[in-house]
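INFO  loader      accepted 1 record
INFO  loader      residues=249
INFO  predictor   begin
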Amino acid sequence: MATTTSTLAKRSATIQPTVDAHATVVASFNALMSKEGYQKRFNELLGKRSPQFIGSLVTMINDDPNMLEVFRDNPNSIIKAALKAASYDLPIDPALGQAYIVPFRNKGKMEATFIIGYKGLYQLAVRTGVYKKINVVDVRDGELIRWDRLTEDIEISWIDDEEERQKLPIIGYCAYFELTNGMKKTLYWSTKKINAHEIKFRKGKGQHQSKGWRENWESMAAKTVLRALLGKWGLLSINYQTADNQTLK
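INFO  predictor   done
INFO  writer      dumping tokens
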């Protein structure tokens, strides 16, 4: 019995700090939301979905040690990033791949930034109802015959055997869309250009490659090229076009 009691005591000691820490984050978060008027802004943007969205945000903070550090250093950056996602009407659950709130270190302090996912970008485009076709694909070694960046003419000889194709290195990504009015656009970026873009736009000074790029380079590369195409020539939903400038800073 003594052994059982001792074991339970140890378990309680282990669990209690976690519960207390969670309660502290929730209390601090709620206080910040009320004090700064953020709660009202979320309600305006999301309506009845606001509690669920905010709940997922609190869960995200509690589940990630890096986000907890951001919450200590710069909690406003988390909420502003979440407001940006809400302005686009995109969920922030990482499993959905539509929008992410990403922690990064800047001048010794942790901050958070909003990053739209590939699926989120696709969602914003589809909402417009003006796309007949939209896609982005990887290009493997030996497939690219010619790319004219001026006329946007591209010639690719796709390898039909998917098993053999997967063995070849990716040399770039090609994005394409066709609108219902017949307008078509194509964009090709080499992996070298994609990597140079990633390095140029890393958050924080002296930062290493972000977790998203390290763990899912292909998805991030596809999104980067599709975003370059849509950002310059495409159309995105009204949520993207009219998002409050104050939430996008």
